[in-house]
From TrEMBL:
Name of the featured protein: Lysine transporter LysE
Species, as recorded: Cloacibacillus porcorum
Membrane topology: Multi-pass membrane protein
Any matching Pfam family: LysE
Primary subcellular site in the record, as a coarse category: membrane
Lineage start: Bacteria, Thermotogati, Synergistota, Synergistia, Synergistales
UniProt key word DNA repair: no
Segments traversing the membrane: 29-52, 64-86, 106-127, 139-161, 173-190
GO cellular component: plasma membrane
Amino acid sequence: MALQLAVGPVCIFVFLAGAAQGFYEAMSGVLGAALVDALEIALAITGVGLIVRRGGAAGAKLRIFGALVLLLFGASYILDAVGFSILPDFALFSAASADGTFIKALLLTLSNPLTLVFWVGVFSVKVSREGYGGASRCLFGLGCVLATLLFLSLAALAGGLAKEMITPCQLRLLNAAAGLLMFYFAYRSFRGGEGG
């Protein structure tokens, strides 16, 4: 659970989805993020993620791509605050919700290649220092996915509870602040630091 305590762009996205559309809508975003985490954890367990960890030109390109996606989401939040939308709603592609919260959370989580690097690092430590074998790695991976579900569900719940107290003006200000945070995460990604 301690691995989930860093609040990043996905957590902010889930909270805002809860504040704008309610708990159940935000939960579709939680499921999208957890699906990507499960995939990346599976890749880390199998060792495929070691290629990403090596970095080089491929790692730099992935970092830049992730930063650009974060900039797009940041700009979207800021423009949404003034009533203009630049991201499509993905309604045709999403069975999870009418406005595509599931797909947006999926894309936002996928946009951060540092998450895969993080999971590869975590599992490298578990294997090299603690001697985790196949079954132990799988159980630990399952625990990590469940922690993602729990932590983001709490963010969705907090957003859903805030929905009842936040005025539309306050929600626009919250969106603008979240947009600025996305810009910060994008800057960190460009610089090579953790972005989410």
